[in-house]
Amino acid sequence: MSDASINASTIRDDEAGFRDYFALLKPRVMSLVVFTALVGLVAAPVPVHPMIAFCAILFIAIGGGASGALNMWWDADIDRVMKRTRGRPIPAGKIEPGEALNLGLALSGFAVIMLALAANIFAGAFLAFTIFFYVVIYTMWLKRATPQNIVIGGAAGAFPPVIGWIAATGDMAIEPWLMFALTFMWTPPHFWALALFMRSDYDDAGVPMLTVTHGRRATRTHILVYTVLLAMLAVGAAFSGIGGPVYLAVSLVLNALFLRGAWRISRRDEDASEADNFLVERSFFRLSLLYLFLHFGAILVEAVLKPFGLGGW
């Protein structure tokens, strides 16, 4: 093979493809944004035209993806250090930081304007605030400044159901804020469990996660405390406008499992083998993913059943 062919092959390997740009939007996070926003929209007590609903969810998703691109642009330096993130498009050399910045800004403006036109101005403005909160308040400020980064910054990930509700109603109510609170209280134990078995990543990157600043024992205690508070909130929400018997049954089972997992983590012996601790922490982290999805799934079921007189109390 000639040198020219080798160079051409190398260039092709280094060029960004559709998958790289899509990865820049953090599709896993976007999927959670889409689902919780959809639940917020469907749970709203007003009918929404299917086309308006589709457009609203699409633009909320694009806004979430734009936040992800801007987050990757700003965090490119620590992403190169962390094992979990070094394969992302920017640290991998697939996409230039400037490209990520331009894409994030362009998609943010597009998503906000189009949501305002498709649904209402209030929804568009709230999406703009959410993007600002995630990128500026969390990514640029809190993430590297305080071990409470994920506690306060978790609000950004909890806003989508509120945006979905506003897109449907153009107004506020207590129900979307209960969904917000559910996600907000779930975020710390979810991410602290991840930090427990990925602690070396945050150490290497110099990110003041609770595991780094206060140690593993304190983090495990925090997980238990937040899980207890989360369980009370989650079960209590069953008796609100978004709850019902289906939600209550799902919530009781999930919170029993989640409390058991948090208790097991809190009782871990620091002298136990690293492999044993890893398995317990990782299993709790995986359960946390199922926990939020099934709670919102139950809220969605209750909302769908209500028109038939079957959902709610």
Automatic annotation (TrEMBL):
Annotated gene: ctaB
The protein's name: Protoheme IX farnesyltransferase
Major location (coarse): membrane
Catalytic activity: heme b + (2E,6E)-farnesyl diphosphate + H2O = Fe(II)-heme o + diphosphate
Family matches, as HAMAP family: CyoE_CtaB
GO molecular-function terms, A-Z: protoheme IX farnesyltransferase activity
CC terms in the record's Gene Ontology section: plasma membrane
Uppermost EC category: transferase
Record NCBIfam families: cyoE_ctaB, PRK04375.1-2
Alphabetical keyword list: Cell membrane, Heme biosynthesis, Membrane, Transferase, Transmembrane, Transmembrane helix
PANTHER family: 4-HYDROXYBENZOATE SOLANESYLTRANSFERASE, PROTOHEME IX FARNESYLTRANSFERASE, MITOCHONDRIAL
Family of the protein in this entry: Belongs to the UbiA prenyltransferase family. Protoheme IX farnesyltransferase subfamily.
Enzyme Commission number(s) from the entry: 2.5.1.141
Description of how the protein assembles with itself and partners: Interacts with CtaA.
InterPro entries from the UniProt entry: Protohaem_IX_farnesylTrfase (IPR006369), UbiA_prenyltransferase (IPR000537), UbiA_prenylTrfase_CS (IPR030470), UbiA_sf (IPR044878)
Function comment: Converts heme B (protoheme IX) to heme O by substitution of the vinyl group on carbon 2 of heme B porphyrin ring with a hydroxyethyl farnesyl side group.
